[in-house]
Amino acid sequence: MLDExxxxxxxxxxxxxxDLRRILLESLPAxxxxxxxxxxxxxxxxxxxxELTFAHGPTVTTDLLVGADGAWSRIxxxxxxxxxxxxxxxxxxxxxxxxxxxxxxxxxxxxDGALFAVAPGKGVLAHREAxxxxxxxxxxxxxxxxxxxxxxxxxxxxxxxxxxxxxxxLITDGDTAPVLRPINALPIGHRWDRVPGVTLLGDAxxxxxxxxxxxxxxxMFDGSELGRAIAAHPGDVEAALTAxxxxxxxRSERFAxxxxxxxxxxxxxxxxxxxxxxxxxxxxx
Length: 285
Known about the structure:
It comes from Catenuloplanes niger. The protein is an alpha+beta fold.
Protein backbone atom coordinates (compact mmCIF):
# COMPACT_ATOMS: atom_id res chain seq x y z
CA MET A 1 0.00 0.00 0.00
CA LEU A 2 2.77 2.43 0.92
CA ASP A 3 4.80 1.53 -2.16
CA GLU A 4 2.04 2.25 -4.70
CA UNK A 5 3.72 3.84 -7.77
CA UNK A 6 2.58 7.30 -8.85
CA UNK A 7 3.68 6.95 -12.48
CA UNK A 8 0.22 6.03 -13.77
CA UNK A 9 0.68 2.28 -13.40
CA UNK A 10 -0.81 2.02 -9.90
CA UNK A 11 -4.23 0.60 -9.16
CA UNK A 12 -5.43 3.60 -7.10
CA UNK A 13 -4.91 6.74 -9.19
CA UNK A 14 -6.34 10.00 -7.82
CA UNK A 15 -7.94 12.99 -9.50
CA UNK A 16 -9.51 16.15 -8.16
CA UNK A 17 -13.28 15.78 -7.99
CA UNK A 18 -13.83 19.03 -9.87
CA ASP A 19 -11.57 17.94 -12.72
CA LEU A 20 -13.21 14.53 -12.94
CA ARG A 21 -16.66 16.10 -12.94
CA ARG A 22 -15.66 18.44 -15.78
CA ILE A 23 -14.20 15.57 -17.84
CA LEU A 24 -17.36 13.50 -17.45
CA LEU A 25 -19.70 16.40 -18.22
CA GLU A 26 -17.75 17.39 -21.32
CA SER A 27 -18.05 13.84 -22.65
CA LEU A 28 -21.85 14.07 -22.82
CA PRO A 29 -23.94 15.47 -25.69
CA ALA A 30 -25.34 18.93 -25.06
CA UNK A 31 -28.64 18.84 -23.22
CA UNK A 32 -28.12 15.41 -21.64
CA UNK A 33 -28.13 16.94 -18.17
CA UNK A 34 -30.91 19.29 -17.16
CA UNK A 35 -29.87 21.57 -14.33
CA UNK A 36 -32.11 23.22 -11.70
CA UNK A 37 -34.49 20.26 -11.50
CA UNK A 38 -34.79 19.60 -7.79
CA UNK A 39 -37.03 16.60 -7.15
CA UNK A 40 -39.74 17.34 -4.61
CA UNK A 41 -41.86 14.22 -5.01
CA UNK A 42 -41.99 10.82 -6.65
CA UNK A 43 -44.78 8.28 -6.91
CA UNK A 44 -45.26 4.89 -8.49
CA UNK A 45 -47.75 4.70 -11.34
CA UNK A 46 -47.66 0.93 -11.74
CA UNK A 47 -46.12 -1.19 -14.44
CA UNK A 48 -42.60 0.02 -13.57
CA UNK A 49 -43.43 3.66 -14.36
CA UNK A 50 -42.89 6.57 -11.96
CA GLU A 51 -43.82 10.24 -11.89
CA LEU A 52 -41.31 12.83 -10.68
CA THR A 53 -42.32 16.30 -9.53
CA PHE A 54 -39.81 19.13 -9.55
CA ALA A 55 -39.57 22.28 -7.44
CA HIS A 56 -40.30 24.63 -10.32
CA GLY A 57 -43.45 22.81 -11.40
CA PRO A 58 -43.18 20.34 -14.27
CA THR A 59 -43.50 16.56 -13.92
CA VAL A 60 -41.77 13.73 -15.77
CA THR A 61 -42.90 10.13 -16.21
CA THR A 62 -40.19 7.48 -16.38
CA ASP A 63 -39.96 3.94 -17.69
CA LEU A 64 -36.65 3.49 -15.84
CA LEU A 65 -35.81 5.53 -12.73
CA VAL A 66 -32.27 5.45 -11.30
CA GLY A 67 -31.79 7.08 -7.92
CA ALA A 68 -28.29 8.51 -8.06
CA ASP A 69 -29.24 11.32 -5.69
CA GLY A 70 -26.93 10.78 -2.77
CA ALA A 71 -27.15 10.21 0.95
CA TRP A 72 -30.60 11.69 1.47
CA SER A 73 -32.07 10.21 -1.70
CA ARG A 74 -35.70 10.96 -2.50
CA ILE A 75 -35.81 7.83 -4.66
CA UNK A 76 -34.62 5.37 -1.99
CA UNK A 77 -37.99 5.26 -0.14
CA UNK A 78 -39.50 3.59 -3.22
CA UNK A 79 -37.28 0.62 -2.44
CA UNK A 80 -36.22 0.76 1.18
CA UNK A 81 -37.06 2.26 4.56
CA UNK A 82 -33.39 2.53 5.48
CA UNK A 83 -32.05 5.93 6.52
CA UNK A 84 -28.45 7.04 7.05
CA UNK A 85 -27.30 7.12 10.67
CA UNK A 86 -24.60 9.24 12.25
CA UNK A 87 -21.40 7.25 12.78
CA UNK A 88 -20.27 9.39 15.71
CA UNK A 89 -17.51 11.11 13.70
CA UNK A 90 -17.71 14.62 12.26
CA UNK A 91 -15.25 16.17 9.84
CA UNK A 92 -14.50 19.88 9.82
CA UNK A 93 -13.28 20.69 6.31
CA UNK A 94 -10.71 23.38 5.65
CA UNK A 95 -8.32 24.68 2.95
CA UNK A 96 -4.93 26.38 3.14
CA UNK A 97 -3.92 28.05 -0.11
CA UNK A 98 -0.41 28.97 -1.32
CA UNK A 99 0.71 26.72 1.47
CA UNK A 100 4.41 26.49 0.65
CA UNK A 101 4.77 30.27 0.86
CA UNK A 102 2.15 31.18 3.47
CA UNK A 103 2.06 28.05 5.66
CA UNK A 104 5.49 26.42 5.25
CA UNK A 105 5.44 24.41 8.50
CA UNK A 106 2.07 22.86 7.73
CA UNK A 107 3.10 22.27 4.11
CA UNK A 108 6.25 20.47 5.25
CA UNK A 109 4.24 18.30 7.66
CA UNK A 110 1.79 17.25 4.93
CA UNK A 111 4.57 16.75 2.40
CA ASP A 112 3.79 15.84 -1.20
CA GLY A 113 1.02 13.37 -0.41
CA ALA A 114 -1.18 12.90 2.64
CA LEU A 115 -0.90 13.21 6.40
CA PHE A 116 -2.79 11.22 9.04
CA ALA A 117 -2.32 12.30 12.66
CA VAL A 118 -4.85 10.39 14.74
CA ALA A 119 -5.61 9.67 18.36
CA PRO A 120 -8.59 8.06 20.08
CA GLY A 121 -11.66 10.00 19.02
CA LYS A 122 -9.92 12.67 16.96
CA GLY A 123 -7.51 13.32 14.14
CA VAL A 124 -6.01 15.73 11.64
CA LEU A 125 -6.18 14.40 8.08
CA ALA A 126 -4.77 16.41 5.20
CA HIS A 127 -3.52 15.98 1.67
CA ARG A 128 -1.87 18.15 -0.93
CA GLU A 129 -3.78 19.24 -4.02
CA ALA A 130 -2.65 21.03 -7.17
CA UNK A 131 -1.61 24.67 -6.96
CA UNK A 132 -0.10 24.52 -3.48
CA UNK A 133 -3.41 23.77 -1.74
CA UNK A 134 -3.63 21.80 1.50
CA UNK A 135 -7.06 20.24 1.95
CA UNK A 136 -7.72 19.14 5.51
CA UNK A 137 -10.41 17.25 7.39
CA UNK A 138 -10.34 17.64 11.14
CA UNK A 139 -12.05 14.61 12.66
CA UNK A 140 -13.84 14.58 16.00
CA UNK A 141 -15.85 11.91 17.75
CA UNK A 142 -18.63 14.10 19.01
CA UNK A 143 -22.35 13.92 19.65
CA UNK A 144 -24.56 15.53 17.06
CA UNK A 145 -25.55 18.17 19.62
CA UNK A 146 -21.99 19.53 19.48
CA UNK A 147 -22.68 20.67 15.93
CA UNK A 148 -25.71 22.74 16.89
CA UNK A 149 -23.66 25.70 18.13
CA UNK A 150 -21.37 28.00 16.19
CA UNK A 151 -18.42 25.95 14.99
CA UNK A 152 -15.35 28.15 14.70
CA UNK A 153 -11.73 27.28 14.04
CA UNK A 154 -10.92 28.26 17.62
CA UNK A 155 -13.58 25.95 19.02
CA UNK A 156 -12.26 23.05 16.96
CA UNK A 157 -8.63 23.84 17.80
CA UNK A 158 -9.47 23.71 21.51
CA UNK A 159 -10.08 19.99 21.05
CA UNK A 160 -6.43 19.62 19.97
CA UNK A 161 -4.76 21.55 22.77
CA UNK A 162 -1.13 20.48 23.06
CA UNK A 163 -0.84 19.14 19.52
CA UNK A 164 2.07 20.27 17.34
CA UNK A 165 1.59 23.80 15.91
CA UNK A 166 2.15 22.64 12.32
CA UNK A 167 -0.88 20.38 12.80
CA UNK A 168 -3.12 22.89 14.58
CA UNK A 169 -2.28 25.37 11.81
CA LEU A 170 -4.33 23.13 9.53
CA ILE A 171 -7.26 24.09 11.76
CA THR A 172 -6.61 27.72 12.66
CA ASP A 173 -5.00 29.07 9.48
CA GLY A 174 -7.63 28.06 6.96
CA ASP A 175 -8.54 30.37 4.12
CA THR A 176 -12.17 29.26 4.17
CA ALA A 177 -14.81 29.11 6.88
CA PRO A 178 -14.90 25.69 8.56
CA VAL A 179 -17.47 23.37 6.94
CA LEU A 180 -19.07 20.65 9.04
CA ARG A 181 -19.25 17.20 7.46
CA PRO A 182 -21.00 14.79 9.82
CA ILE A 183 -20.20 11.26 8.67
CA ASN A 184 -23.34 9.20 8.11
CA ALA A 185 -23.78 5.68 6.79
CA LEU A 186 -26.51 3.33 5.69
CA PRO A 187 -26.71 -0.06 7.44
CA ILE A 188 -24.02 -2.47 6.31
CA GLY A 189 -25.54 -4.90 3.85
CA HIS A 190 -28.30 -2.50 2.78
CA ARG A 191 -30.39 -4.13 0.07
CA TRP A 192 -33.97 -4.24 -1.15
CA ASP A 193 -36.42 -6.45 -2.96
CA ARG A 194 -36.79 -5.93 -6.71
CA VAL A 195 -39.24 -3.12 -7.47
CA PRO A 196 -40.17 -2.76 -11.16
CA GLY A 197 -38.67 0.17 -13.02
CA VAL A 198 -36.40 1.63 -10.33
CA THR A 199 -32.97 1.06 -8.79
CA LEU A 200 -30.23 2.97 -6.94
CA LEU A 201 -26.54 3.61 -7.33
CA GLY A 202 -23.77 5.36 -5.41
CA ASP A 203 -24.47 6.84 -1.98
CA ALA A 204 -28.21 6.45 -2.51
CA UNK A 205 -27.62 2.69 -2.49
CA UNK A 206 -24.70 2.20 -0.11
CA UNK A 207 -23.67 5.34 1.77
CA UNK A 208 -20.64 4.54 3.92
CA UNK A 209 -17.94 6.43 5.78
CA UNK A 210 -14.95 7.52 3.66
CA UNK A 211 -12.44 5.26 5.37
CA UNK A 212 -12.28 2.68 2.62
CA UNK A 213 -11.72 5.44 0.07
CA UNK A 214 -14.25 3.87 -2.29
CA UNK A 215 -17.36 6.07 -2.28
CA UNK A 216 -16.88 7.89 -5.58
CA UNK A 217 -15.20 4.84 -7.12
CA UNK A 218 -18.19 2.67 -6.31
CA UNK A 219 -20.65 5.23 -7.66
CA MET A 220 -18.87 5.36 -11.01
CA PHE A 221 -18.51 1.58 -11.12
CA ASP A 222 -22.19 1.17 -10.29
CA GLY A 223 -23.12 3.40 -13.21
CA SER A 224 -20.86 1.48 -15.55
CA GLU A 225 -22.21 -1.88 -14.42
CA LEU A 226 -25.80 -0.70 -14.69
CA GLY A 227 -25.16 0.40 -18.26
CA ARG A 228 -23.53 -2.94 -19.07
CA ALA A 229 -26.47 -4.83 -17.61
CA ILE A 230 -28.98 -2.83 -19.66
CA ALA A 231 -26.93 -3.40 -22.80
CA ALA A 232 -26.74 -7.13 -22.06
CA HIS A 233 -30.54 -7.44 -21.71
CA PRO A 234 -32.00 -5.45 -24.62
CA GLY A 235 -35.71 -4.94 -24.25
CA ASP A 236 -35.82 -6.46 -20.76
CA VAL A 237 -35.18 -3.78 -18.14
CA GLU A 238 -36.25 -6.01 -15.25
CA ALA A 239 -33.72 -8.69 -16.16
CA ALA A 240 -31.06 -5.96 -16.38
CA LEU A 241 -31.94 -4.50 -12.98
CA THR A 242 -32.03 -7.94 -11.40
CA ALA A 243 -28.56 -8.77 -12.71
CA UNK A 244 -27.22 -5.36 -11.68
CA UNK A 245 -28.54 -5.57 -8.12
CA UNK A 246 -27.39 -9.17 -7.63
CA UNK A 247 -23.82 -7.94 -8.16
CA UNK A 248 -24.31 -4.57 -6.45
CA UNK A 249 -25.35 -5.90 -3.04
CA UNK A 250 -22.33 -8.08 -2.16
CA ARG A 251 -19.90 -5.61 -3.76
CA SER A 252 -21.12 -2.67 -1.71
CA GLU A 253 -21.40 -4.73 1.48
CA ARG A 254 -17.76 -5.75 1.24
CA PHE A 255 -16.59 -2.13 1.11
CA ALA A 256 -19.06 -1.01 3.78
CA UNK A 257 -17.59 -3.60 6.14
CA UNK A 258 -14.08 -2.39 5.31
CA UNK A 259 -15.08 1.24 5.78
CA UNK A 260 -16.62 0.64 9.20
CA UNK A 261 -13.62 -1.37 10.35
CA UNK A 262 -11.21 1.32 9.18
CA UNK A 263 -13.17 4.01 11.04
CA UNK A 264 -12.54 2.06 14.23
CA UNK A 265 -8.88 1.60 13.30
CA UNK A 266 -8.50 5.33 12.75
CA UNK A 267 -10.20 6.65 15.87
CA UNK A 268 -10.66 3.70 18.22
CA UNK A 269 -9.18 3.31 21.66
CA UNK A 270 -5.81 2.04 20.37
CA UNK A 271 -5.29 4.78 17.74
CA UNK A 272 -2.85 5.36 16.11
CA UNK A 273 -1.69 1.74 16.49
CA UNK A 274 -4.61 0.46 14.41
CA UNK A 275 -3.83 2.85 11.56
CA UNK A 276 -0.17 1.86 11.57
CA UNK A 277 -1.24 -1.77 11.36
CA UNK A 278 -3.50 -0.99 8.40
CA UNK A 279 -0.81 0.91 6.52
CA UNK A 280 1.94 -1.63 7.10
CA UNK A 281 -0.16 -4.70 6.42
CA UNK A 282 0.35 -6.17 9.87
CA UNK A 283 -2.08 -7.86 12.19
CA UNK A 284 -3.90 -6.29 15.11
CA UNK A 285 -3.24 -7.69 18.57
